[in-house]
Write a structure and sequence with these properties.
With 191 residues, the protein is an alpha/beta fold. It has helices at 2-38, 64-73, 101-109, 120-127, 166-170, 178-183, and strands at 40-42, 56-61, 78-79, 82-89, 112-115, 136-139, 151-156, 159-164, 174-176, 185-186. The strands form two sheets. The chain has an eight-stranded mixed β-sheet with strand order 3-4-2-5-6-7-8-10, with helices on both faces. It has a two-stranded antiparallel sheet with strand order 1-9. Strand 5, helix 4 and strand 6 (136-139) form a beta-alpha-beta unit.
Length: 191
């Protein structure tokens, strides 16, 4: 019996350690996202007279828990003196139906779309919104950058890093600082 209790305690500690490591990785990804926002300019903001009154619209697709992590990272609800609006989209669409008009409008109004699931259909749906999008598209879906996405957050060995598809970024109506592009691992889209 003592052996069973000890085994259970060891397993519980391992699960706790994995949860803590997963939380730390998510916090690092939120920090990356904040820096991507800091070093990106959006054409849709260029004609706005009072940018500080305009919110950053960040849409998280496929992970409601991550929305909470993002909100905790910005406790006053602002970043760079602008309010933050977090949009939580657990799913883009029903199984066999296309994305509805309201969801499309939410996505197109976004400054950042972060795909947190590994649903290839959702990835394709986001790419199909515009051939020249005015949002920054992030994901931690493996292979996302090669499949036409902009920035793919990934874990290599023990560190979080990111892959950059410069062509996808150049085709967008945003300007990401060359500093960011140089720090990322460059990838090219699959034909």
């Amino acid at each position: 019996m003592l052996m069973v209790v000890m085994l259970w305690l060891i397993l519980a500690q391992q699960v706790q350690a994995q949860d803590n490591q997963s939380k730390q990785i998510d916090q690092i990804k939120v920090a990356y996202m904040a820096n991507f926002i800091r070093f990106t300019q959006w054409d849709k903001d260029a004609n706005v007279k009072d940018n500080q009154a305009q919110p950053w619209i960040i849409t998280i697709v496929g992970d409601s828990a991550f929305v909470k992590d993002v909100s905790v990272a910005f406790p006053n609800g602002k970043f760079l003196d602008r309010p933050i609006v977090l949009v939580d989209l657990p799913a883009l669409r029903d199984e066999d139906n296309p994305i509805d008009e309201q969801t499309q409008k939410k996505l197109l109004a976004s400054h950042v779309i972060y795909l947190r699931n590994s649903n290839l259909r959702d990835h394709r749906d986001i790419l199909s919104l515009s051939s020249s999008p005015d949002f920054l598209y992030l994901s931690d879906m493996p292979g996302m950058a090669k499949a036409g996405g902009m920035i793919e957050l990934c874990t290599l060995k023990t560190r979080v890093t990111f892959k950059v598809n410069a062509k996808a970024i150049r085709n967008a109506k945003i300007r990401v600082s060359s500093k960011v592009l140089r720090l990322g691992i460059p990838v090219t889209s699959n034909p």
